Prior knowledge:
single chain; mainly alpha; 434 Repressor (Amino-terminal Domain); 52% helix; globular; HTH cro/C1-type domain-containing protein; Lambda_DNA-bd_dom_sf; DNA binding
Amino acid sequence: MAKPPFSxxxxxxxxxxxxxxxxxxxxxxxxTRQTIAAIEQGKYSPSLEVAFRIARAFGKPLETVFxxxxxxx
Length: 73
């Protein structure tokens, strides 16, 4: 499977949020720790709903958490 055409700052945002664990974030947004890990690593594209839930967990706009890479279009 090819890497998705976007990147994310979830790992950095978790660190800035008091070193939140992947499991803590997963619990907040309703997915597993493994799903959060895969999204962070660019191995899995979250649904739009999960992406918004992740952004909301950090109190950030979606575009702050996920960045689209036009070069991969």
